[in-house]
Amino acid sequence: MHKTIPFLLSACLLVASAAVSADEDRQSRADAAVANILFDYDYGSEFASYRVNEDGFVDIIMASNTPSQVYVEILNRLENHPDIDGVLASNSGPACKISNW
Length: 101
Description:
By secondary structure, this protein is α+β, with helices and mostly antiparallel strands. The protein has a single domain (4-93), classed as Alpha-Beta Plaits, CATH 3.30.70. 52% of the residues lie in helices and 20% in strands. It has 3 helices and 3 strands, in the order H-H-E-E-H-E. It has helices spanning 4-39, 44-47, 68-80, and strands spanning 48-52, 57-63, 86-93. It is elongated and about 35 Å long. It starts with a helix and ends in an 8-residue tail after the last strand.
């Protein structure tokens, strides 16, 4: 009976570490997706600030002077990306000073 306790403990730790690894992988894939989408727009990292949680959900704030067409394009790409589970977005951030829009 005492031999099964270490086995069960090891099994529980293995399952827990696999779950953490899966969440980190999910977060990493979503983070890479956001970075790649913003890279397609000039100075994307300058007019957007974002956070990705462990579930792959993105919270992004874009500059207040982001053109509405660009804002909608980025938002659509984020919402339709398979590695992103959800998006909360706004364009109420500080105005981007390097914008050439």
